[in-house]
Amino acid sequence: HFLCNYESFMHKYIPGTEAYAVLANKRGARPTLIIPVIDMELAVDLLPYVDEIVPFGRFIYYSAPGKELCERDEWVKKSAIDSTPIPTVLEAVASVLKKLGLDNKRIGLDESYFSPKLYQKFVNNIPAAEVTDAFDIFREIRMVKTPDEVEIMEQAVRALEVALKNSLRLAAEGVTEKDFQDVFEKTVFEKGGIPIFTSVYFGAESFYNQVLPSPNKRLTANSLIRYRYN
């Protein structure tokens, strides 16, 4: 996601779904994105940010003969129907590295998303390359924010401020923790954000960190209101 702004629905619904961004260590280079073929209609929006999108795996697409297609459909047809995707993700990775002349070079891999078994499979798949851990490198790079990233963070803070104000207007005896959460998240959505984790706690139990807001826990007089959100 960091290298090419790609986020797959498959990551949320099918654990273990793999996707890779390959970026050569050259000034001006753009990443090559390796993704499941089912995500091709999503990936078309990323074309301005990447050098190439390489699909792998199998998914059935069908295009009726003679039907006029829009630009997106035409691209998906060309990529997923007219050509045959590479069968497996590791074969796709090896193919891309070879095409870029990197299959016998030093490869930095963000190891934070890999199980030991998958990591070893990746290494074994490119025997001529030297694979090294690169999570710390990416973490350091992420510390430097572009103007666009700064603007996004400022927008997020503004959305949270409005959400806090709107939900606190509910404060009255009898209102539930869930009521607060619903108004808070609705406001964040309306301001263009996506809540990841929102919790609102009332009273003495507010010191708990991993309890979901309750539709039955009601605000009482002089009670503490505690927010936790991402």
List the helices and strands and how they pair.
Elements: H1 9-13, E1 20-22, E2 32-36, H2 40-43, E3 52-56, H3 71-81, H4 89-99, E4 106-109, H5 116-125, E5 130-133, H6 135-142, H7 147-168, H8 177-190, E6 198-202, E7 225-229
Parallel strand pairs: 2-3, 4-5
Antiparallel strand pairs: 1-2, 6-7
Helix pairs in contact: 7-8
A few lines on this structure:
With 230 residues, this protein is α/β, with parallel strands linked by helices.
Which CATH class of the largest domain is shown? Alpha Beta
Model regions low in confidence, pLDDT < 50 over at least 5 residues: none
Approximate helicity band: 25-40%
Number of helices: 8
Query: Structural class of the helices, strands and pairings?
Result: alpha/beta
> Strand count, sense and closure of the main sheet?
3 strands, mixed
Rounded mean pLDDT is 87
- The CATH topology label of the largest domain is Creatine Amidinohydrolase, Chain A, domain 1
Helix-strand topology string: HEEHEHHEHEHHHEE
Overall, the morphology is elongated
CATH homologous superfamily identity of the largest domain: Creatinase/prolidase N-terminal domain
Rg result: 23 Å
How many structurally independent domains? Answer: 2
Major β-sheet strand ordering:
1-2-3
Instruction: Classify the beta-strand content into a percent band.
Output: 5-15%
Number of strands: 7
Overall CATH architecture of the largest domain = 3-Layer(aba) Sandwich
Q: Ends: how far apart? A: 18 Å
Protein name: Creatinase N-terminal domain-containing protein
Domain Creatinase N-terminal: 74-144
InterPro entries: Creatin/AminoP/Spt16_N (IPR029149), Creatinase/aminopeptidase-like (IPR036005), Creatinase_N (IPR000587), Peptidase_M24B (IPR050659)
